[in-house]
Amino acid sequence: MDQRIEDLQVRIAYLEKNIAELDGVVRELGQGLESLGQQLTELRQSFAEAAGEASRASLKDDVPPHH
What digits encode the pLDDT tens for the residues 1-39? Predict the structure, then answer.
């Protein structure tokens, strides 16, 4: 009976260690996803700004030279 309890305690300690390690991995992945989300937002804003500037430049090019 004592051996079974000791075996269970060892298993619990092993599982607790694994859970702590997995928690660290999940936290790192969450931070990575958050960073990627911020980068994506910045890229979208940059793209929108560049597209707007290109559109304005295109409109200026369409104006006849005598005006």
Answer: 899 999 999 999 999 999 999 999 999 999 999 999 999
Token code pair at residue 62: 């369409």
Average pLDDT over residues 36-61: 85
Residue 4 has phi, psi (to 5 degrees) of -65, -40
Residue 48 in any domain: the answer is yes
- Specify the number of domains making up the chain: 1
What token pair was written down for 21? 């390690």
Specify if 42 maps to a domain: yes
Let me know if residue 12 belongs to a domain: no
